[in-house]
Amino acid sequence: MTGKVDVDDLKKRLTPLQYSVTQEAATERPFTGAYWDNHESGSYRCVVCGETLFESQVKYDSRSGWPSFYDVADKSKVITRADNALGMRRTEVVCAKCGAHLGHLFDDGPNPTGLRYCINSASLDFDKRPGE
Ligand code: FE
Fold first, then answer.
1. Are 36 and 116 in contact (CB under 8 A)?
2. Which residue, 10, 26, 99, 100, has most beta carbons within 10 Å?
3. Domain limits of the chain?
4. Contacts 24+ apart (CB under 8 A), 87-95
């Protein structure tokens, strides 16, 4: 993790759900978040540090109830690491800049990558592209 995260500041700035997802690796309930069904053009940023992580062009409907992307905006913007919690072998996706938990990475995504970045809406802010 780069940059020091001030817990009190985060608790003021984030909703309880945003806090528990990004700082405690909780998962929002599917089909409840702000962005799983968002089809607007724009950029998805880390809700904690503001870094652009995903673009709408690589978002697709995975029918999982979470925003799903088959690629990242820039490979350097996210870190993946093994997550063996809850008796499952999964790959966690984390913001490279601030360490916020974003979601998990699966290998059942569409072409061209075959990847599915399964991301919590609560970890993201959305910037609608001007003029669209
Ligand atoms: Fe971040």
1. no
2. 100
3. 7-128
4. 92/25, 93/117, 93/119, 95/46, 95/48, 95/49, 95/51, 95/53, 95/123
Ligand 1 centroid, distance to 20 Cα (angstroms): 14
Q: Residue 6: pLDDT band by 50, 70, 90 thresholds?
A: confident
Q: Is residue 104 classed as helix, strand or coil in its secondary structure?
A: strand
- Give yes or no: 118 in active site: yes
Cα(44) to centroid of ligand 1, in Å? 11
Q: CATH homologous superfamily of domain 7-128? A: Peptide methionine sulfoxide reductase. (2.170.150.20)
pLDDT tens profile 80-122: 999 998 899 999 999 999 999 999 999 999 999 999 999 999 9
